[in-house]
Design brief:
This protein has 275 residues and is α/β, with parallel strands linked by helices. It has one domain: UDP-N-acetylmuramoyl-L-alanine:D-glutamate ligase. It has a ten-stranded mixed sheet with strand order 3-2-1-4-5-6-7-8-9-10, with helices on both faces. The N and C termini lie far apart (38 Å). Bound molecules: adenosine-5'-diphosphate (ADP) and the ligand Cc1ncc(COP(=O)(O)OP(=O)(O)O)c(N)n1. Adenosine-5'-diphosphate binds next to strand 8, helix 7 and helix 8. The ligand Cc1ncc(COP(=O)(O)OP(=O)(O)O)c(N)n1 binds next to strand 1 and helix 7.
Length: 275
């Protein structure tokens, strides 16, 4: 049987816990062959601001064309896209190549404080890329920005936001409740019903890259042919184990541990359906 392939179009996170690095580590954990197109290089933390270096569209397109011609893809994820120009060009590439199983993680601000999407790129994200997605995976601040500043504080707000975001055109919306009080509940909406994915809250600050790794796990599971709700459930187990066994290095917010689900297994996640 041929191994399944997943492409990530995202930024390089030099610290290794988020971005392209997290995506490729996650694909590997799911036994999916990972390829990558780097949109920007991020070498930034609160102490040493070496900055954000976007790549030219010429460099990004060269990577995409090489992958499309030589390897192919069963699923695609977008992460940090940074500029309006990159979003518009990536959107055209996705349409031209008729790519399916598209996971859009509308990355905006990293937990270390980096601005990963320019203000003027928001409209292109909202109206060009998001409508093409099989699933979008905003966290609470990202969902709020996409909805023009809607207040999101409770589980009911999460459900409301998912319903409103679905009107933009994606087939599924997953709003992540990582910043809620109490259990970590995420809400998936498919236009008809809600799926609630719940995990015990883990008391740690070391969750760098949790969103990237979660959406990459969903991408890998879609590449393997799972339905969207099954893919999200499997990915939720993966990321909860990654947070439970997250890593602490010299300073800053430490990364999730990508091998944790394979090494230590399940973590008490549940899925339930609500009409
Ligand atoms: N402290 C935590 N304990 C358990 N799960 C968490 C915790 N923080 C975040 N999560 C979960 O991790 C996943 C990523 O969420 P989040 O951290 O909000 O994304 P992002 O990294 O995009 O901000 C979600 O499933 C969320 O519910
Ligand atoms: C290059 C790059 N891309 C995306 C992110 C954001 O990652 P995320 O998983 O949302 O986690 P945090 O950074 O918020 O912990 C990033 N930091 N860098």
């Amino acid at each position: 049987m041929m191994i399944k392939r997943a492409l990530t179009i995202a930024g390089s996170a030099a610290r290794g816990g988020a971005g392209i690095q997290a995506d490729l580590k996650t694909f590997q954990e799911f036994d999916v062959f990972g390829t990558s197109a780097v949109t920007a290089i991020v070498a930034k933390n609160p102490h040493t601001g070496k900055g954000i270096h976007p790549q030219t569209w010429e460099a990004i397109e060269a990577q995409l064309v090489t992958i499309a011609e030589d390897i192919g893809m069963d699923a695609v994820k977008t992460g940090m896209l940074f500029t309006k120009e990159i979003i518009e060009n990536v959107t055209e590439f996705i349409q031209k190549e008729k790519l399916h199983n598209l996971v859009v993680d509308p990355v905006m601000i990293g937990k270390m404080g980096s601005a990963l999407l320019q203000e003027e790129a928001m409209e292109a994200m909202r109206h060009r890329l998001v409508p093409l997605a099989t699933i979008i995976t905003p966290n609470m601040p990202e969902a709020s920005y996409l909805l023009g500043g809607k207040e999101i504080q409770t589980l009911e707000d999460l459900k409301d936001s998912a319903r409103l975001l679905h009107k933009l055109g994606p087939a599924h919306v997953l709003v992540k409740g990582g910043r809620l009080e109490g259990p970590a509940v995420d809400v998936l909406y498919d236009g008809e019903q809600f799926y609630l994915f719940e995990a015990p809250r883990i008391h740690t600050i070391h969750t760098n890259g949790a969103g990237c790794s979660y959406s990459a796990a969903i991408t890998a599971c879609l590449a393997k042919g799972m339905s969207v709700p099954d893919a999200v459930f499997e990915a939720k187990k993966f990321i909860t184990a990654g947070i439970r066994h997250s890593l602490e290095f010299k300073q800053g917010v430490g990364p999730t541990y990508h091998a944790a689900y394979r090494q230590y297994g399940e973590t008490g996640c549940t899925m339930r359906i609500e009409k």
